[in-house]
Amino acid sequence: MVKKFNEFSEEIQAEIIRAATKVTVAKINAKGAKFDCYYGHKNWFRDSISEVISGLKAASNG
Predict the structure, then answer these.
(1) What is the mean pLDDT of the chain?
(2) b/e per residue, 10-35, with b = 16+ CB within 10 A?
């Protein structure tokens, strides 16, 4: 089971935020001007946080 964000130590939370920020910026830069295909709200940062936490789980199990 993937931990929730608040279950990590403050140091790990800070690193998760830094990594998710970089992932979010990279995704937005890769999309460029192609945002017209989205209808409704897209929370890029929340998705990136989830991906980083999933990556931490995979790394700790590997």
Answers:
(1) 83
(2) eeeeeebeebbeebbeeeeeeeeeee
